[in-house]
Design brief:
By secondary structure, this protein is α+β, with helices and mostly antiparallel strands. The protein has 5 helices and 3 strands, in the order βαββαααα. The chain has one domain. The chain has helices spanning about 40-50, 70-80, 90-100, 105-110, 120-125, and strands spanning about 1-5, 55-60, 65-70. The longest helix is centred in the middle third of the chain and has 14 residues, at about 40-50. It is globular and about 45 Å long.
Length: about 130
């Protein structure tokens, strides 16, 4: 059995940049995910693809966890599924991705592996 954690559609907490700055993906961190234009969505997805290293963890008992960014086209398409009521921002997505990448193998194998920084993304279906 395998469990796949795919960082894409904006994984909140995942990736750096000072609040309100434009480091990281180059997209303003304070912008809501649902307000992004096509170029910004593509920039964010390309950023995740560039900075997220694929990681495969053998959890034992036949369980394998794969952590990786989604392909850019799939990430962009997934953005369309985020409900308009979602309050998650680019900064949330970047931070979530970073926090996931920082999890230990043991944490990735546990059932409670979702970093706190990812909660807002999970709540609105962006994960």
């Amino acid at each position: 059995m395998s469990k796949r954690i795919v960082v894409a559609a904006f994984l909140c907490a995942g990736l750096i940049a000072a609040c309100g700055g434009s480091d990281g993906s180059g997209v303003e961190r304070s912008k809501s995910l649902v307000s992004l234009n096509d170029d910004e969505i593509t920039d964010l997805c390309e950023y995740f693809a560039d900075v997220t290293e694929k990681r495969v963890v053998d959890c034992g008992g036949g369980l394998t966890v794969t952590f990786q960014a989604k392909p850019v086209a799939e990430c962009v398409a997934d953005h369309q599924q985020i409900p308009a009521s979602c309050s998650a921002t680019v900064g949330d997505a970047e931070d979530c991705n970073t926090d996931f990448a920082d999890l230990t193998d043991e944490q990735l194998c546990s059932d409670g592996a979702l970093p706190a920084s990812c909660q807002v993304l999970f709540a609105c279906g962006a994960l």
